[in-house]
Amino acid sequence: MSEKPRKRYDMNSPEARAVVDEIVHGTFMKEGTMAAFPTCFPGASTPIPADEGHITALAVSGDGMIYGGTSGRAAHLFVGIFHGVTGIVFDRGTVAGADHCAAVCCGKTRFAACVNGAGGGRVITGELQALPFDLIQEWGFTRTPLRDLGPVNGERIVHAIASDGGSSLVGITTGALFTVNLDSGAIAVVGPAPGVGRIAVGSRGGIFGQDGPGDLWRYETASRTITRRAMKLPEGVWDKSPLMWARDNESGLLYTADGEGRLFALDEDRGFSPVLGLTALAPVGPMAVTHDGRVFGFCGSEMARMFCYNPAARAVSDLGVAVSVLERRRYGYLFGDAVVGRDGQVVFGEDDDLGHLWLYFPRIQRLKS
């Protein structure tokens, strides 16, 4: 029996170009620009080892530097400097006995990292990095010593945020809420609270965390009191994935999403909004709010897609899978945290082998006359 002739396709035909356009432009970045930056000074130092380079925590200092922590075979702490004639990620070193960084917070003069290892969670602090004038000619960095404040309560740390203008840290372990004075290094366990997902500061200064499948607890920093089941979560699926937050630092509005990708906003005075929109995939991962109020984040558990919620248009758009085509091509599939840089760019930490800092420059919105 003769073989049936194979159909030949004209790849220059309008039909073929339409298919390719749908595959490429329907999958990868549709707007804005991504730049994947390695965890080193390119051309002068080596990046953090691949199996130690999962970036799982990020924070921004008052002068706009990016502080972060990695997870994997070992946990590293680093600082990214992208102002002026710089362009470097400086490895501050590994934390002995740690293989996971749950959170990084920046204070006025020091930063703090919450790390986990075989013995549970510990808090590590260090001095903030001085901003170099430029890195054109001679340059050098000193690794100032890190200070190990020790364990919190023997449990793993789930998340932490800066509080009280950067003078303290509020964090949660798997079963308790704790605080850290960043100047003195004193750790205090406030009381029991479910350590599930992330925590965030609301528009009135209250700190919120998930309290079971349908509620939030609230912590008041001034009175040091925890109110259980202080606020009901909106109708949705809240037991599929850890809770994520993104804060609009202008309005104090908090954005979150349920386990099926429904976006909501939380105002402490008015409570939760109706559903704002639905992301292309679930669960929703790290998100951040830019200076113009737009929310950018990733959704999906294996090949994450970026989305944008524009409050002006009240719409969620799918921006595709991350790809960087500057200097070296790299595709990004998993991300661990997100922050907004000094100039409005969104910085995502890649939670993958040989993780990069992904700097996303959103499309500038056209002014309407």
Overall residue-averaged pLDDT value? 91
How far apart are the first and last residues' alpha carbons, in Å?
70 Å
Helix content: under 10%
Largest sheet descriptor: 5 strands, antiparallel
Low-confidence stretches: 1-9
Counting DSSP E segments of at least 2 residues, the number of strands comes to: 31
Strand content: over 45%
Structural class: mainly beta
What is the number of helices?
Answer: 1
Our Rg estimate from Cα atoms comes to 22 Å
The general outline is globular
Q: What oligomeric state do the depicted chains represent? A: single chain
Could you walk me through the main structural features you see in this protein, from its secondary elements to its overall organization?
With 369 residues, this protein is mainly beta. Helices cover 4% and strands 45% of the residues. The chain contains 1 helix and 31 strands. The strands form 8 sheets. Strands 18, 19, 20, 21 and 22 form a 5-stranded antiparallel sheet that branches. Strands 1-31-30-29 form a 4-stranded antiparallel sheet, with no helix packed on it. Strands 2-3-4-5 form a 4-stranded antiparallel sheet, with no helix packed on it. A hairpin with a 3-residue loop joins strand 20 and strand 21 (271-272). It is globular. The model is unreliable at 1-9 (pLDDT under 50).
